[in-house]
Fold these 4 entries.
Entry 1:
Amino acid sequence: MQRVKILTVVLSRNRWKGPFGVHSAVTDWTRPRRVHTSCATFEFHEFDKRSGYDTGFEIADTRIERIRLGLKQLKKEIKLWKKEVKEVLICDPIFDYRPGEVDVYWRFYEESSLDHWIVTSDSDHAEGFSKCELKISNQGYGLFHGNLCSRVPKDGRIQNSGYCNMITKRVSKSFQRDSFLDWSPYTHLNLRLRGDGRSYLINIHVSGQFDIMWNDVFTFVLYTRGGPYWQTTRIPFSKFFFASKGRIQDKQAPLPLYRITNFGITVSDKADGPFQLELDYIGADFDPTHHEETAYEILFDSKCFNFLLSNISTITSFNPIISKQTSPTGVVLQ
């Protein structure tokens, strides 16, 4: 009983100062509490897939406008759903991928073919002075052109500038359901284009479910020839290297062709001036003689390497296929 009295006196005397004034410890302990949640950290987790950039979607201000836009979008989703049901009922998959045949995924021939693409530059986000546009040329092909400027705005925030980009919209099903392009049967990317001699970047996005994988992209350089002649470019998917947020990753991996979300082309070669890239189609083809998964060395972790060194005798004893040839580091080679 004496201990209870002492505890009551101590609690009544101990007072702490909060942001809204002085509160007694007793009232703070006895007041009803809500469900406790852990504090949000802003160091690692990302809440926005676009990192704060404008999505470009039309946002209504009033409730009537929201209802009108919602009904308009509902009609489009129902049409897309009917198309999906029809494809399921027809059930006409591709069983044979013959060499030399190109399956075209994007062809530029009319204005409606440009609806699948989003064109952006650094000036759209107040990060530079580059301008670009995607349109149908006078010859009836897609023309990605503009002016590249690497001049950095003097705002004390931007350090690098000068890029123009064209990217497809996210692959999705009806009612805004995320989907993927499955290019696993193919081995090469196939493009027919006419360039200006610049070097462009081809970006194949494979965005994952978690925030750490939202910016995963596989990239390769597209070299173009200047002049009036068209060129057909075939790039093996094994040549694409793994990057994230513009940085090439140390640990490379094969391109997961079964979960492609976006396809894009970027110009950012620091050569200020006009550019133009004329496109006929973008597709993929199959080469039965190509068996390479990735052209880059996959680095092992240091722990894994030490484990192999410590257990190399056990591995060789259970695997008679491994020869007696050894490398300078002592690792048995096959």
Entry 2:
Amino acid sequence: MMRSLQLPEQILVAFRVADLSGKRDPCPFPPRGTVTRISFLRFYRHESYVLLVTKPHGRPTMVGEGKEELAPEGMEEGAPKPPVSFMDKISTYKKMVWGTYKSKPISYWVLLLLSSGAMLVAFPASSLLSRVYYSNGGKSKWIISWVAVVGWPLTALILIPTYFFCKTSPSPLTIKLTLSYIVLGFLSAADNLMYAYAYAYLPASTASLLASSSLVFSALFGYVLVKNKINASTINAIVIITAAMAIIGLDSSSDRYGDVTDSQYIIGFVWDIMGSALHGLIFALSELVFLKLLGRRSFHVVLEQQVMVSFFAFVFTTIGMIADNAFQGMSSEARSFDGGKVSYIMVLIWGAITFQLGVLGSTAVLFLASTVLAGVLNAVRVPITSIAAVILLKDPMSGFKILSLIITFWGFTSYIYGNYSLSKDSS
């Protein structure tokens, strides 16, 4: 029943055999460089034989599933395997999920759940609150930009305890690192101002859909600046999302508030796309800072960058607020705001809190799980924002916008699949 087959490129890792009676006995290891061949007829019938081999510097592979498949005695090489039933696939998947769950402590899954919830709730809430500000009498673009960064101390309050729990020290601030934070802070302030123009003139559902084009620019700038790989799925996602943005532009006549002029709608549309492009550039530059200046990726290092970038963005935006006399205008806006002064203050406070919670949630997801999961959650929050805006703010929802929403989700799915393929190939 058994004979030896010389496989010079393989090294035996483990070999166990179970006889028909169900007893399991370890087989003695064959000579190095050889693999004992067994009857595959019995292997398929009982699925009891496990033979794990690997190439030098490679990953373990089960014989019969890898490229060096050994055909059973009396059967032709390359003969098809017996089909696996649907229930067997379900059972295998359940075991994989349970094994993944058991591999991490409960605290890990609780934190991941809270972080994912923050992304799916806080970011859409922040977008809706920006639109509520303008629809209820707010006028200033600088105030909404300032609200997006004024909550930076919340991130600092999360950062400080990590030094004690993780037993780490703050990253040294070199001249290059400080300059990079200043540049990123300035770009972030400009990015927030562009998005403020978008939410001033566009429905929240439309602004959210257009903002999803930042994925396109992140992929392009990542390829140019960081030398990230791009595959066919990523290119497909870029084309699909670009087409979705074009559909929204063609349907501008039915996707506009009555008090917004044609020129204002065009301004909001253009600033939203430009803000997405700048957001993609910021993302690529942030990754470049990690690679060139910090040289390491950890949760507290990312929080450090977020705190510093938000701080400098807050400084630049505050300068703009002073130059525009926006602080003096806040009192007059509060008096004329629909719902009164209290409603005005609550919109600004919760806008600042939700934006920072969304940033913290996305940061935690990236380092607890992967960029793939972060991409999935970003894809999900686009329709959440659009649907919530239609229900809560009575945003117009035409057939073209629904088509654009579906196409955008398709583009996100293609990008996620491409990102997953690249991660799998690199590992």
Entry 3:
Amino acid sequence: MGKKQNAGGERLKEEDLLIEVLSRLDVRTLLVCKAVSKTWHSLISSPTLVKCHLSRAITSSSSEDNKKTALIVRLFNNEEDSSFSLYQLGGCDDNVAHLDFPYSTGDYPCAPPSFLIGCVCGIVCVSVIVNFRWFTTEKRTDIYIWNPATKQSKLVPGHTLDNGKRNAALGFGFDPIDFDFKVVRVLSKDTFPEVYSLNKNVWRNIETRLSDIPYRHRIETCLHGFLFAIGHNGMMAFDLNKEVFICDISLPVRSNDTCVADFKDSVAVIIFNFSEKVDRIKLWSLDDEACLRGVGVEASWTMMLTIDVGVRVDWVFGIFNSVELLLASGDLFLYNLNKKVGRYIDTDLFFDFHEVFKYTETLLPVPGSKLVNWSDDVDDNEESSTDLEEVSEESRIDSEDDDERSSVGVGSEDGNEECTGDSEDDDDSEEKSSDSGDE
């Protein structure tokens, strides 16, 4: 097989060059390319290309030069429609794709209420309130892990703890050490939290009583192998690899109007004051992540930004491509931190402001999944033969020629990208958290 020379003077095999080219294509095109030959099918399904494609996509979406950032949102045009859609931020804001649901037509007698829990590395977690329309006091929730780009979706096994009349706080994150996606459930202080591993396909009780619970209905931000939420007593962090909670992390300023975000690849909190209807936002960056290791280190913060955005701030979603801050002010508002200018986003869509996540298209497989069918033309999307454990194993091996494609470059969000919503305050939420289905 012939070789070419790259810009660094290295000699590349034709297969390497093919991977370099294919990794720049969108997922839909790559799925079509699988039909070219058995060789291409095998190559596109390989862990090497999957990782290379993901790394390139996340690096591009996090770049300051990126002019287009994709968001996944939940629509609510009417009572029957709580489907999902991709919305692209850029010079011309546009609804780029309607995604329907993570389950197929006929799986439920009618479309039940569905809610976004999180989106990491292009993999989406959705909760579905199954018996909502029957007005029962007991809530049954189905949880799906879904790749909208490949239409692979997995119904997570039922969790061990029944909600009963209580509502659960849910979080979805990525463990970069074990290359595993996980779902976390928190009911109350007097029950053990639970964590689900996609690789192991099981729920496990975390047999530690929590001193705090999430103030809102989501454990909302994934960064550096942790899930973060604002609790009643401070910030909470969940170590996705060790599967332990660290509670009562002190905040720079105590405010109910606080969200955790990624600021230039550092853990940050954004504080605003919705009750006073002011236009000022303050951003603080965590100085050292030692406080996340559970060793009794006090958190220290540095104020990085004080921003007068010029409009009333209802909610802050996070920073979506290093320099643009997305917030709600009646409608969606995008503020450029470098240029210090903002603009309203042109959209006729109606979607839940508390269910907006950054989205990166990916080829990552969902082990144990099935293909979702919402149309008659189930075409090119056959189930992937690659699984996460294959990708994980290859990511542990250093290539002899220092091939950068052998390691997953895992970026960060937005409040939501790493390989990273809100409800009304509840007077009695000190003892039980609110729920993704309690909108």
Entry 4:
Amino acid sequence: MSAVEVDSSTTLIDCIDESNDVLPPPSPTVETHEEEIDGVVALLPGEARILKANLRSPVWLNFDKVKTMKALEKYHGRVVVTTDMWTTSNQKRGYMVITAHFIDDSWNLQSHILRFVYVPCPHTAQALCDAMMDTFLDWNIDRKLSTITVHNCSTNHAMVSILLEKFDPNCLWWSGSLFHVRCAAHILNLILKDGLEVIKEAIEKIRDSVAFWTATPEREIEETICQLRIPFTKTLPLDCATWWNSTYLMLQTAIEYKDAFSHLKHRDTQYKTVPTENDWKLAVEICGRLKVFYNVTELFSRTRYPTANLLFAKICEIKIALSEWVFCDNVVVQNMSWKMEKKYDKYWQNIHGILGVVLVLDPRYKMTLIEYSFRGIFGIEAESKIETVL
């Protein structure tokens, strides 16, 4: 099945006409791909108010592939590839996006979406590998790849292994030993999900309270806030349970309205899931410690400039923080940090070497930051760890 392809300068949201007017119709030569269009519409947030006609427009479909291909052919360096999969909630269809990144001659980060394609179930490693190889060959970048960044899951691990069998080892850095890069933001999400399981009960109470709050008439909420003299400056968001950063933002805002929840209990007998004082104390304790993770995730999610050189320092910062939390007086925090550190260490073993190399190539840091960070993490073993980077 053919894929809907878009120019890298056009994001999914950029394809939306905010006025909700229909964009000019596509030219007769543009092929519309109904299944892919349905998939994109389903993947975008409801508040985007996207029209399917907008995705049929030249902005989305009729981009200059030749121009992008010429830019890749002209570029003599290595290309980094990232990929991700989505499954639509209504159709249960899987879609893959494949993006190429490189630094141009003007030292600007270039990112080009090479392919957005429907991948039929089952999403096996072989099926994903075939979609990737078709893209590499189609865009003639199979001999100039440096790394591929994917989510940390067994299917992706198997997919990368199959890919490596198809490449000439001489065309890859260090015979492909550095080819597979685990997505740092996804790893942090997995680490935090494990950690937050320790306080799952308290989070569930606060989540249910926020859900009840959003269903409460606005006038009743405003009266409660006014009586308690709470500054009504932030909207109370309900989190997405699969993304910890939304849970962090929900807890952070809910803490500010703690007294309002307690007051609401006396005004509405239907409100049964009131967090206890201990639940709130735990939320405050956890939020204060998770701020470093939230800031790092925000940093990793930037798209306008490379972040690889920033990654090492932040990963080390998290490692040092987790090591300190283990000695916290709060038993819950201790248990949380033990779970998080266990998963973190597994990831650290796979990435600290290549990230160290990236950092050394940054003229602002060179070896200074590596030596400082490793001594804080490894203690007396720091010197031997530093030598592995060299």
